[in-house]
Design brief:
215 residues, alpha/beta, five-stranded antiparallel beta sheet, 29% helix, 30% strand
Length: 215
């Protein structure tokens, strides 16, 4: 079953440069996909469009066959998670409050936070603040915050780029294990070839605004 459908997306900026040009792909439920490319090729722009944070000139993005991004419409679905490159944690909030941010009032926040902390192996860290954690721990918390809302699709924008090699490998392997357990469709963009290959066998590169399959 197709979870996410991106069809004929075109995105240009003021200088009329086509960052994305008739780009299309589909991502099935629980499927993992990697997009590899250098800075400026359009990887992050694509994720921001899928997340409902940027407009497009042509095409459409649909989730479970319902379009939510078109040239005349842009919304942000509740069931799409986004892990940013720098984690984007709130520095004035505890880890507990960071993970609970965005949860609905009726949801059992304490139970969900405890489950997420156990999942990312940081139980007992709920009262700490982001500056008290290592880079790898902060990325785990950013992942937990996205997973707490039980997204259908998870977008990952180079989440390991600021980590040392050993930490990157550890967090990457843990992320893959978590995604396998949760059966969440995920789209991972990176400039690191090794990360792309380990994350998914479904690998692409953005070339001239379009996706090209990589072996």
């Amino acid at each position: 079953m197709t979870q996410l459908s991106v069809q004929h997306i075109r995105k240009s900026y003021a200088n009329d440069t086509h960052v994305l040009n008739e780009l299309s792909f589909e991502l099935g439920a629980g499927e993992r996909m990697s997009i590899l490319g250098e800075s400026g090729c359009g990887k992050s722009t694509l994720l921001r469009i899928i997340a409902g944070l940027e407009s497009i000139q042509a095409g459409r993005v649909s989730l479970d066959e319902i379009p939510y991004v078109t040239p005349k419409k842009i919304t942000t679905p509740n069931n799409i998670g986004f892990v940013f490159q720098n984690g984007a944690l709130f520095p004035h909030m505890t880890i507990e409050k960071n993970i609970a941010f965005g949860l609905a009032k009726h949801q059992p926040k304490k139970d969900i936070v405890e489950d997420m902390l156990a999942l990312i192996k940081l139980s007992g860290f709920e009262k700490r603040y982001p500056h008290e954690l290592s880079g790898g721990q902060r990325q785990r918390v950013a992942l937990a915050r996205s997973l707490a809302r039980k997204p259908s699709v998870l977008l990952l924008d180079e989440p390991f780029s600021g980590l040392d090699e050993q930490t990157r490998h550890t967090i990457r392997d843990e992320l893959i294990s978590i995604l396998n357990q949760a059966s969440i469709a995920s789209l991972f963009v990176t400039h690191h070839q090794d990360d792309a290959h380990v994350f998914s066998e479904n690998r692409y590169t953005i070339m001239n605004g379009r996706l090209e399959r990589r072996e």
